[in-house]
């Protein structure tokens, strides 16, 4: 909780900081990478830095946390913090890195705000930062403990034991620990980070949702995914993190909606596989949207898994279907013709516009906001 004095100062300066955050975050990253070039080479996603997505997500997170802290000081925004902490834990972030970020972030703030940043305002925002950082450190430490790894030591060598082409640009990789140890436990919906050494020597990292036990799917998009497609074959070794992720299948007995678009079907496939393995009696509705049958990864899995379940059905929408397809299933996903109970728990994964549209439709159908969960690939731009 912020001190009363700092809360008043943050509340008064939030419009100025929020208005300048789009300038602060680029300068922060420029300073950070100039001082620590290895962070851009071996930790941060170079693609998300180039397109500005990571800067936008960071700015949104800072402003959202500060806003929540002063508007409802007795309630910590744990949902946002937990999501960030899971991503950090999968990358092996350690407490000392927060001090590095603090230095360069506050230098950027001072540079952008200039004389308008009083000593009182700087102290108040310093308090905000350490509230955020220490909350994340505490959650990340618990995550490391729960996965049985030392602080930040999440990486292990895995051997690729299989590779299967799902579509022309999606491949599934099967891996196992290179030392012969058993696969670490994972909950349906979680992801792993995968690190590869690119031709320029950089060790870049991406997260991939698990679609089965020791399996993750990769769509060709960006330098790491392209490297996996072009260069990695069975017998090769990859650096893979322990499984992390806060969007996981609940253990309840109520109805479920699994809604995905494009490669967003990956975590949904993992969830469906688990439900089929335990012969779940739950009412399960799977909704998927894609360009066409040819681009629909795990299409056969969707059909097979829903048939295995006693009370499951699938609704698939294609923008440009190959051959005959039901007219009411051509175009973007539309839930209006699907019976969805108000007590449904929903999981969404896909492009942000798709998830926002589905969430809106679910809210209109009476599904509670707290029961709608979403997963994103890359920086979380929902708040932005």
TrEMBL record:
Boundaries of each Globin domain copy? Answer: 1-141
Q: What's the catalysed reaction?
A: 2 nitric oxide + NADH + 2 O2 = 2 nitrate + NAD(+) + H(+); 2 nitric oxide + NADPH + 2 O2 = 2 nitrate + NADP(+) + H(+)
Per the database record, which ranges form the FAD-binding FR-type domain? 153-250
The organism's place on the tree of life at top rank: Bacteria
InterPro entries this protein is in?
FAD-bd_FR_type, FNR_nucleotide-bd, Globin, Globin-like_sf, Globin/Proto, OxRdtase_FAD/NAD-bd, Riboflavin_synthase-like_b-brl
Q: What is its EC number?
A: 1.14.12.17
PROSITE patterns with a match to the protein in the record: FAD_FR, GLOBIN
Q: Which GO terms describe its molecular function?
A: 2 iron, 2 sulfur cluster binding; FAD binding; heme binding; metal ion binding; nitric oxide dioxygenase NAD(P)H activity; oxygen binding; oxygen carrier activity
Q: Which GO terms describe its biological process?
A: cellular response to nitrosative stress; nitric oxide catabolic process
Looking up Pfam families in the UniProt record yields: Globin (PF00042), NAD_binding_1 (PF00175)
The protein's UniProt keywords, in alphabetical order, are:
Heme, Iron, Metal-binding, NAD, Oxygen transport, Transport
Stated family = In the C-terminal section; belongs to the flavoprotein pyridine nucleotide cytochrome reductase family. Belongs to the globin family.
Q: Which PANTHER family does the entry link to?
A: FLAVOHEMOPROTEIN (PTHR43396)
- Could you identify this protein by its name? nitric oxide dioxygenase
